Amino acid sequence: MSTPFAIIAGVGPGTGAAVARKFSAVYPVALLARNPANYEDTVKNIKAAGGKAIGISTDVSDAKSMSDAVTKTKQEFGDTCAAAVFNVGGKFVRKPFMELSLGEFESGWEVNGRGAFLFSQSILPLLLNSTQQSTHPPTLIFTGATASLKGSALFAAFSTGKFAKRSLSQSLAREFGPKGVHVAHVNIDGIIDIERTKEYSKHLGEDAKIKPEAIADAYWYLHTQPKTSFTQEMDIRPGLEKW
User: Fold this and answer.
1) pLDDT above 70: percentage of residues in the chain
2) Second label for 150, Cα 20 to 30 Å away, from 16, 74, 188, 234?
């Protein structure tokens, strides 16, 4: 019998790892990232805690790579997905519009647009498979950013991809919500507290950054919402954040 599992694309030391740990308390988890070094420690830690986890090197913007990742996951856990999280950030480009190359502009869409499309099209059939047996409604969550709602100056490449991902989430929510799949987009509007951002906004104190574990808690809350009260969009930001 197939075991409902969770799959997280874009696992690194922050949000992805925290979400993987949170969901692994209930489900076997498949962790996707281009670089195996990004998920190896998390897989080991989950297994050490008694959970089940696999890591798969995946380029979500490549159709074959994404298809292979889902095939490997199905071989390991079956064809019933309880929760899927698209947490891939994509390439960050910040520069004047007239200095952007076509490649730089398209880089924002390759992961956040095409990658989100390929991930969703691969995993939605498995989410639909669990509508009758999952304890909670099967859930597809997209991680967004400030640029998902606001195209700031110098962010033409980055924000275009984020807008595409947010729009896709809305379309999928309207199509698959009536079929029992909860699709949500989460706007992470602030700095995430990881080692790389240790010195960012340090003068404002600990409350100026978002804890990855708090994001994971919010994702679990979204996953456990009943069919009668789906949240499609959520904003997460520190109380000190200007918006």
Assistant:
1) 95
2) 16
